[in-house]
Design brief:
By secondary structure, the chain is of the alpha/beta class. The protein is built from seven helices and six strands; from the N terminus they run ββαααβαβαβαβα. The protein has two domains: 150 residues, Ribosomal Protein L4, Chain: A (3-Layer(aba) Sandwich); 41 residues, no CATH class.
């Protein structure tokens, strides 16, 4: 698959040949969905917790005598059936993450990249370098490329000026190539890869 390489100014900078094993797969939405669920589960804090009957602050004394009242037999006011008592079977702090095979994770990333290529939402730029850390100038360049909602992936090291200039632009995410992931690819409209990022991805999936 051949794509035209653009500069940040919107000019053509030649062509690049993309590997069909990474960008030309028949998209499997089920694999992508598995990966998204895996990522979202790992992002959950899991700090939700209610108080059990052993944790609420109430007296532990017997409510009233066992016999002679005509009422049901009760002991502690901390029991779940009473107002102010503990919660039975409530949420507890836990880790929501689970394992997903490494091969499935790698395959999901390739299918996400292929999905963007198939939808014509993939843009290749020659390099991600800004002469100065000016958000206004970079926002103008993005507007020229039609980028209003995009994930931008650079090489192993991001240009400091580019990163600073891009961080205040709404709906634009900038990551180094080692941070690329399925969830961020799907949550943004366009995917922008630098030539260095393409080379790193093709090396990674050899």
């Amino acid at each position: 698959m051949d794509l035209t390489v653009k500069t940040l100014e919107g000019k053509d900078a030649g062509k690049v040949s993309l590997s069909d094993a990474i960008f030309g797969l028949e998209v499997r939405e089920d694999i992508i969905a598995r990966m998204v669920r895996y990522q979202l589960a790992a992002k959950r804090q899991g700090t939700h917790q209610s108080l059990t009957r052993g944790e609420v602050s109430r007296t532990g004394a017997k409510m009233f005598k066992q016999k002679g009242t005509g009422r049901a037999r009760h002991h502690s006011a901390r029991a779940p059936q009473f107002r102010g008592g503990g919660k039975a079977h409530g949420p507890v702090s836990r880790d929501h993450s689970y394992d997903l095979p490494k091969k499935v994770r790698a395959l999901a990333l390739r299918h996400a990249l292929s999905a963007k290529a198939k939808a014509e939402e993939l843009i290749i730029v020659d390099n991600l370098v800004a002469n100065e850390a000016k958000t206004k100038a970079l926002a103008g360049a993005f507007a020229g490329l039609g980028l209003t909602n995009a994930l931008i992936i650079g090489g192993a090291e991001l240009d400091a000026n580019f990163k600073l200039a891009a961080q205040n632009i709404p709906n634009i995410d900038v990551l180094p190539v080692q941070g690329i992931n399925v969830y961020d690819i799907l949550r943004r409209g366009k995917l922008v890869l630098s030539k260095a990022a393409v080379e790193a991805l093709e090396e990674r999936f050899k």
